[in-house]
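re: ur question from earlier - yeah i can do the single chain one, its not a big deal. heres the input i used so u can compare w yours
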Amino acid sequence: TDAVSCSEDESVRVWDAASGQELQALQGHTNEVTSVAFSHDGTQIVSGSWDKSVRVWDAASGQELQALQGHTNEVTSVAFSHDGTQIVSGSWDKSVRVWDAASGQ
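and the output i got, formated as tokens:
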């Protein structure tokens, strides 16, 4: 079982939950990362940052799959819907956005 964390150092990190060993450091955000979550099937990771972006990552490879743009202020929360078809993000721009996980729209 893996765990995921976010940090002020602009990274998203994937950990082996049993051993505590870092498995991957995902780079792409350009400011502090404030929220992160696995998809329910564990295949993707979503992250939100003060760089105003929401990013989607492949959990196995660490490859960035999408950078979702649209917030006009820092992103403070992210989550996948239970079925994995949507991503929800909240921001200091006083909005909540619902994104199509496949298209990023």
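The two ends are 30 Å apart (CA to CA). not sure if urs matches, ping me
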